[in-house]
Amino acid sequence: LTYGHFFLTKTFVILIAGAVSQAQTNTSSLVNGTLVWGRCSGYAVHGGTTVSFDGALTIVLNGSVGVSPGTSVTGSYSVRSGGTDLNNAAAADCASDKDTAYQYLYGLICPASNVLPSPELGGQTLLPGVWCANSISISAATLTLNGTGNPNAEWIFQTATTLITGTATAFLLQQGAQAKNVYWAIGSSATLADHSSFVGQVIAHVSISVAPGTTVLGRLLANAAVTFVEDSIELP
């Protein structure tokens, strides 16, 4: 990776910085994304009850939109590479597999040293590993994820309750960190604030709400509703 590469979908960007200077020996991973997501692997968005695209157009740059056992996908959206599945066999398969994925991610052991003393992650730099807290917030500034030169480095964030981000917050991916290796297991709901940039694959036990002007490089899966308002999302 070179300096100054951007994920460009709107004015707000996710910065990817820090070239890997030499090859590193791969370490065994906690998560194999292909296996963890199973039959959800092709979905950028999947809700259990409804998926709503409020306001003007939301763009799904790649990946499909699904809902099951609910049947409602409403509003203005454009799927550039993928489709929409309304409680068909594919959507029902994902509904089953996302519960398995949640149980696996939330069940990974969080070392005592990685129990976050504060729910606030804004302004911090975190190394790979399983990180946990009762709730997590990124209310200001940037969360930096440093892969220490390993392109397979993984971050698994576990929260018993909520994930809440603030307006215009962003992520900085350094030294080999990749969005596809960032996972969020949310015990209740995730709320992504307006005009922010978010990285990672979220699975929420309840719901996910995305405020206007937000870009997501990842996937958003919830057991209840997923709601967008004029945003963009792209599978990593």
UniProtKB/TrEMBL annotation:
The keyword Lipoprotein does not apply. The keyword Nucleus does not apply. Residues 1-23 form the signal peptide. InterPro entries: Ice-bd_prot (IPR021884). Pfam families: Ice_binding. Keywords: Signal. Belongs to the ice-binding protein family. This is Ice-binding family protein. It comes from Adineta environmental sample.
